[in-house]
Amino acid sequence: MINWNEIDTILLDMDGTLLDLHFDNFFWQELIPIKYAKKHRLSLAQAQQFLKPLFKRYEGTLNWYCLDFWSQKLDLDIFGLKNEIADKIAIRPHTHTFLEQLNQSERRIILVTNAHHHSLNLKMEKTQLLRFFHHVISSHSIGLPKENPLFWTKLKQIEPFDNEHTLLIDDSLNVLDSAKNHGIKYLLSINKPDSHKAKRTITTYESVTDLDELTPLR
Question: Cα–Cα distance between 202 and 199 in angstroms, integer?
């Protein structure tokens, strides 16, 4: 699937790639409607009816990933609520083994995430994965989400990489499209980012269910 001899830099997404996306899906799709309904004295159905188009409006923008933005927009302590369910943060199967093998291969390993700094720090503290990366970069530091092709140009100014020798692994097809438009050669998707949801059929990119399908590395 991948000619590892061609790869010297690996850009890794966090949520849905290294971590189970169930935490985030549960948070936004289940917990937040309940908390919003209670806070604003609405039925759950009314809260869901209000939130669904609101979330859709900001999807793929930097605000969608910004906890401060949503705390203000919804009048909820978003970071505090994430802390309350931090026990649901989980590493996807075989992530540790994959990262250990990457480190042994002497390739440069960069975590590139849309997660807000508060969420990123919480998840790194909970999972203890920070030690595996040469550099950790949030799109909030760059000022653009990964869905924007200009993100990769700005990323290159911080962390230089060669498009022809770089692999991006990300569960978001929109992010992969953006990276493809920038010219990154090797792109791989995750077809089951949420352990509680069915495997997705992905036709536009090579995909794996678990990261052990990429090992052993050479």
Answer: 9
List the Cα angle 191/112/206 in 5-degree steps.
30
Query: Is 98 in a helix, a strand, or coil?
Result: helix
Burial 81-114 (b: 16+ CB within 10 A, else e): bbeeeeeebebbebbbebbebbeeeebbbbbbbb
Alpha helices in 21-172 (DSSP H): 22-26, 32-39, 44-58, 67-74, 78-84, 95-104, 117-127, 139-142, 150-158
The 10s digit of each residue's pLDDT in 170-180 is 999 999 999 99
Q: Domain ranges in the chain?
A: 4-20+91-214, 23-87
Rounded to two decimals, the pTM is 0.95
Contact, 6 vs 166, CB < 8 A?
A: no
The answer to whether domain 4-20+91-214 has CATH 3.30.420.40 is no
Would the pLDDT of 216 be above 60? no
Token output for 195: 């352990």
**Cβ atoms of residues 194 and 23 within 8 Å:** no
Is the N-terminal amide bond of 216 cis, ω within 30° of 0? yes
Q: In angstroms, rounded to a whole number, what is the distance separating the alpha carbons of residues 215 and 194?
A: 21
Q: Distance between CA atoms of 149 and 145, rounded to whole angstroms?
A: 9
